[in-house]
UniProtKB/TrEMBL annotation:
The lineage of its organism: Eukaryota, Metazoa, Ecdysozoa, Arthropoda, Hexapoda. Residues 1-20, 287-309 are annotated as: Disordered. The chain crosses the membrane at residues 28-46. This is Mitochondrial import inner membrane translocase subunit TIM50. Signal peptide: none annotated. Residues 105-248 form the FCP1 homology domain. It comes from the Eukaryota.
């Protein structure tokens, strides 16, 4: 009995010592963490709050140099924080595209801004291939046809390290003139938004093709939203888009926003476009037969009425 009591006491003492050691280790850990955090904070205050120095180590005066030392550090830190926040939320540059080409070079009459993911390609996974980006049906034809009359710009919120290799493989002929990625977007209310004001183009001639209204909410009048492609092989959206965009060029629309605004009232704008096209062709055929019956030459005219029923 006495041996059992001694063994129990020994175990209790060992357990007590282990708890004490654990608590000591925890306190040491907290102390190390606190010292590290304090050191890091002190270094950050010193680094962001100190005035800049020239190559010889001399202090460069700034707008805060005449303030009390505490105010100097506070103001400089706040300025740095504002700068980095702006760098995250706003585009990396004011002009996203270079100035339009001047004669004798030819500047396309319209600018076509395309989302990449789920408009041109779709991330796809299979056991055989793993992750890959699948091309939307008709994408090669779409780019080739649009490049004749449009300045094609891919503008996406994805990172450049992801986008550039995909576009290199997707567009070996170089139909896409410019590539804009996440650092060119505005971060607004949790969304990366494409601000066309920074595009350096006449917005009367800019069409944005996207599936996400949030990404173009600063300029909804320039957006033509299509259905998000989920990888199905029977998709024909890009073929329909070619016909729609060709008609804008043929009709020499002065302000594309009027046309885009008209089609916003329809749940399926491309289906409505096909219906308007069918009606117009019927009207042209009727007019052609009437002119032929009168013995007059037939003159076909394309106008903005092509867009309206």
């Amino acid at each position: 009995q006495e041996e059992k009591e001694n063994e129990q006491k020994r175990q209790e003492e060992e357990s007590k010592k282990e708890k004490e050691n654990s608590w000591k280790r925890m306190k040491i850990g907290f102390a190390v963490f606190g010292i590290s955090a304090a050191s890091l904070a002190a270094y950050a205050i010193y680094d962001f709050g100190s005035p800049e120095r020239d190559e010889n180590g001399n202090v460069i005066r700034d707008e805060f140099s005449d303030l009390p030392i505490v105010s100097q550090y506070y103001k400089r830190i706040w300025k740095s924080m504002t700068y980095y926040r702006k760098m995250i939320q706003e585009p990396s540059r004011d002009k996203l595209l270079p100035d339009p080409l001047k004669p004798p070079y030819v500047q396309p009459p319209y600018t076509l801004v395309l989302e990449m993911k789920d408009v041109l390609v779709h991330p796809d996974w299979t056991y055989q291939t793993g992750w890959r980006f699948k091309k939307r049906p008709g994408v090669d034809y779409f780019l080739e046809q649009c490049a004749r009359n449009f300045e094609i710009v891919v503008f996406t919120a994805d990172q450049g390290m992801t986008v550039f290799p995909i576009l290199d493989a997707l567009d070996p002929n170089g139909y896409i003139m410019y590539r804009l990625v996440r650092d060119a977007t505005h971060f607004v209310d949790g969304h990366h938004v494409k601000n066309l004001d920074n595009l350096n183009r006449d917005l009367k001639k800019v069409i944005v093709i996207d599936w996400d209204p949030n990404s173009t909410k600063l300029h909804p009048q320039n957006s033509f939203n299509i259905s998000r492609w989920n990888g199905n092989d029977d998709d024909t959206i890009l073929f329909d888009l070619v016909a729609f965009l060709k008609t804008i060029v043929t009709a020499e629309i002065d302000d594309v926003r009027e046309v885009l605004d008209y089609y916003k009232q329809f749940d399926n704008p491309l289906a409505q476009f096909r219906e308007n096209q069918r009606k117009l062709l019927e009207q042209m055929q009727i007019k052609e037969r009437e002119e032929q019956s009168k013995g007059k030459p037939v003159v076909k005219q394309w106008s903005p009425s092509f867009f309206k029923s």
